[in-house]
Write a structure and sequence with these properties.
Shape: elongated
Number of helices: 3
CATH class: Alpha Beta
Strand content: 25-35%
Strand order of the largest sheet: 1-2-3
Number of strands: 3
Distance between the termini: 13 Å
Order of helices and strands: HEHEEH
Largest sheet: 3 strands, antiparallel
CATH architecture: 2-Layer Sandwich
Radius of gyration: 13 Å
């Protein structure tokens, strides 16, 4: 999925939101940076994924982010 983001020209960042220690559920935020808003560029996008495993939560967030970008 990260390779697909690169093909779309997206600079993606994944952030763990720290919920896993408290509740046992991993929550990951996937976001892109805004591109040249002054020149009419794209605003930043974001999506959140949650799962029992951090990798699954990251996959969910990335999948939703890329789906919206396409």
């Amino acid at each position: 999925l990260l390779r697909s983001a690169g093909h779309l020209g997206l600079d993606v960042e994944l952030l763990g939101l720290g919920e896993e220690e408290r509740t046992g559920v991993a929550v990951v935020l996937a976001r892109t940076r805004p591109t040249g808003r002054e020149e009419g560029g794209e605003p930043g996008r974001w999506a959140v994924g949650a799962a029992l495993d951090r990798a699954d939560a990251a996959t969910d967030a990335l999948r939703d982010l890329l789906g919206a970008a396409q």
